[in-house]
Amino acid sequence: MQTSPISERENIFQNLPVPSALRKMIVPAVTSQLIVLIYNMADTFFVGKTNNPYMVAGASLILPVFNITLCLAGLAGIGGGSLISRLLGQSREDEARRVSAFSLYLGLLIAALFAAGIGIFMEPVLQLLGAGDNTYQYARQYVTCVIVIGGIPTVLSNVLSNLIRSIGRSKEASAGIILGGLLNIAADC
Prior knowledge:
Layout (H helix, E strand, L loop, with lengths): L4 H10 L3 H31 L4 H9 L1 H27 L3 H28 L1 H8 L6 H14 L1 H16 L3 H19 L1
């Protein structure tokens, strides 16, 4: 007899020893974070194939801004996910649904404001990050694609992943991040 998805989730949180439960939840999460790292390395690899060190430097200058984008996703996704897990543990599913929707909209709002802010204040931000005469144009192109245009999808993807992980679906959450990362790497080729 097959068990329902709810009982599998409850089994992880209620019946498994803590080390086993952590392994079931952590391995897919770590894998998805490694894919994000590989995606960033793939960008640098393909930019590096141009044999233009200024392009590589321009892309590298944006890494701190990209990391801030991921932190913003964590703000909405991990924070909301923590509350969702506690609410589900208290059998308050309606409130968990509302928190999920709020977290998603919060992530969307934060990402849109951050992308707009970077778009508006791009010149001083790039100068603060160290873009010079040789790297400014390349950094500008990269930040436009990755943060201004790609910031909202990046944040929403990570928020959704964290929210899905909070209900015990770590494999499914990681599969989404991995698929998105692989699609981004393929698009670079």
